[in-house]
Description:
Elements lengths: L3 E3 L15 E5 L2 E4 H11 L8 H28 L5 H15 L3 H9 L2 H21 L8 H10 L5 E2 L2 E9 L2 H10 L5 H8 L10 E6 L5 H7 L11 E3 L2 E11 L2 E2 L2 H31 L2 E3 L5
Parallel strand pairs: 1-10
Antiparallel strand pairs: 2-3, 2-10, 4-9, 5-6, 5-8, 7-8
Helix pairs in contact: 1-2, 2-5, 6-10
Amino acid sequence: MAALLVAASFACGRGGDKGTVVVARVGPRAITLKEYEDALARLAPSGASEGKDDLALLKRDLINQMIEDALILGEAERLSITVSGDELYAEVEGVKKDYGDAFKDAIAERYGDVNAWKAELRKKLIIRKTIAKAAVSKKPPSGDAARKYYDGHLKEFDAPEQVKARMIVVASEDDAGKIKKTLTPENFSKTAREVSLTPEGKNGGDLGYFGRGDMPKEFEDAVFGLSIGGISPVVKTEYGYHIFLLEARKKDGRLKWEEARPRIIERMRLEDADAEYGRWVEGLKAKGKIEINEALL
Length: 297
């Protein structure tokens, strides 16, 4: 059985080097006060507005997560799971691409320097690989189980009317009027990529499918009244001057079994994986020795 203790054996208080003061021990692994406070600062930066109860819950969740991570890192050692330089490099480059020009500032603010961040990233990759190898259920849900769920939850698959639209946004009414005169359903996407000011412009202004209540009312009023292939008048909002193209429409109704099946199976797979992960972590806790210095939380 795991021993979850308010550890009298720890050095008490917050005095001394925070890198040597221990908040929790997980077998031979120590979680230091510095590691804990650094992680807490990333979750709740100074000036954040969490209430006392919310902060207490955040701290409890954080130390529990750090304990789980330590248990999994111990299991990774047992299984000889490592991360290669190439794997780490690929992950680093992917994060850099996501952050763009803000990368250096974001890392400096959250981790202090790139090397500290890379060390944390390496640990996260090892944890991810260990979970994938040891904790995730490999057996997919059966089609029969998915069908039983569908038949027992039919109302869940009732869907409202939805439309699929594209949008162009520009800064002035004059520009919008000139662009509107040139638009056709065929050139709308290309024009959006060239002139639209919003992020979806690079994807041809694609807004995907949405129902009533999902978008600002001005968007809905403009789009839901169009016919397929129709282009709206110029619509002014606080965001700029908009032009919409209606590409498709889904009538309200119930998703058929064939349409719902992939969604149900994926959800059941994720639920099974979560349950398997929970059982696996509880098993690691049962085999380990966990001590927490509650006074430091």
